[in-house]
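User: Okay, second chain of the day. Same drill as before: sequence in, structure tokens out.
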Amino acid sequence: MADALAGVGKLSRSGRPLAPTQIGLILQRLGLSGKLLGSDQAGVAA
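Assistant: Same drill. Structure tokens below.
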């Protein structure tokens, strides 16, 4: 995910790619932490 974000120009304040911890915090803030996104949900038991 960090590579994909860096590929579209989304970097940390210091200009480096986002670290996994930073991405996790962003996902938590957005309420997306622990949720499967996209087609990966198909066939997964709740």
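The longest helix spans residues 20-29.

User: Thanks, on to the next one.
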